[in-house]
Amino acid sequence: MNLHRIQSALRERNFDAWLFYDHHHRDPIAYRVLGLRPDLMVTRRWFYLVPANGEPQKLVHRIEAGHLDTLPGSKRSYSSWQELQRNLQEIVKPYSRLAMQYSPLNAIPYVGLVDAGTVELVRSFGVNVLSSGDLVSEFEAVLTDEQIASHYAARDAIDRIIPEAFKVIGQRVRNGGTNEFEIAQWILEAFRRENLLTQDTPIVGVNAHSGDPHFEPRADHSERMKEGDFVLLDVWAKTKDRDACFYDITWTGFIGKNPSDRQREVFSIVRDARKLGSETVQKAFAAGRKIAGWEVDKAVRDFISSKGYGDKFVHRTGHNISSAIHGNGANIDNFETKDEREILPNTCFSIEPGIYLPEFGVRSEVNVLTRPGKAEVTGRQQEELVLI
């Protein structure tokens, strides 16, 4: 645990303290931020309060009294519920603005890990419980130089794999045939050759399946590919380095030479919406203006709605990317949630608008990496449908 960094972050964001709490490993964020062993046997509640200034305080059950001994600070112990509440009240009462893993109205489920009853208990002591969302982003989503380098390494490999996958589709369709599942397996084998790790199977969707945002190709649920098919590839992976950062992109193509006018139209709208999303972030960072995830989603969603396809854009514009494919930083979202978390420098996220119709769907995805004063799209950007 980096106590100095935590306390500096609290002062910068005008918090009096950060209260960590767990019971039966309900809050993995606390373990990562504090550097606690994830395999601790936790059968009783523990609390750890880090003030913006001063010494941290621990509250642990007497039968698990050593659980927080690796952390700095004074320690109190309890056995009965009355003793727990009395000690907890004494610990938190000096602090009026207390951060916890709480999200108002559960707007950010990634952060809303403390149960409602515990929030009620702390508030009953006259304390104002606030969301730790931006603190969590700072400690969970801000990337190190090594993680950024790993993202670029994964980018280089995947940006080679995607065009090769489209070539393989064309070759196999014209020489005996293939299906969605077989191409997904080819991509997984390419990951192995490039020493990449992934989670879940890449999305390979043809026609109606490309209109299913989270279609999963399986051996028993897979369409054969043929001339005239519309194809979507959604691919994500990372290197085998410790805490490596994912790279996650989506491209679309057409098997043949003549996509329909509607396919070209929808692709163009989605492509332009994607560009608008990344440019919105780039302009804000270049101007030194703070921007939240919901603002970017709104710009993209308003654009797609103006083209008449708002009801066909059925998910958020993007998600945070870190060592987890869906990380704990700001999501690009004003649809599934209103993500008011600030997009912080040195974080990575996807911009991936989509339009999903019964006969086909288009999603175009890039990754954006922010730095102090600037933001960049880290990989290749699709400008036209791939003719396979």
**Helix and strand sequence:** HEHEEEHEHEHHHEEEEHHEEEEEEE
Proportion of residues in extended strands = 15-25%
CATH superfamily of the largest domain: Creatinase/methionine aminopeptidase superfamily
Class based on secondary structure composition and strand pairing: alpha+beta
Give a verbal description of the structure.
By secondary structure, this protein is α+β, with helices and mostly antiparallel strands. It folds into 2 domains: 138 residues, Creatinase/prolidase N-terminal domain (Creatine Amidinohydrolase, Chain A, domain 1, 3-Layer(aba) Sandwich); 243 residues, Creatinase/methionine aminopeptidase superfamily (Creatine Amidinohydrolase, Alpha-Beta Complex). The protein has 9 helices and 17 strands. The strands form 4 sheets. A 6-stranded mixed sheet has the order 4-3-2-1-5-6. Strands 7, 8, 9, 10 and 17 form a 5-stranded mixed sheet that branches. Strands 11-12-15-16 form a 4-stranded antiparallel sheet, covered by helices on one side. A hairpin with a 7-residue loop joins strand 9 and strand 10. Helix 6 crosses helix 7. It is elongated. The termini are far apart. The model has no long low-confidence stretch (mean pLDDT 96).
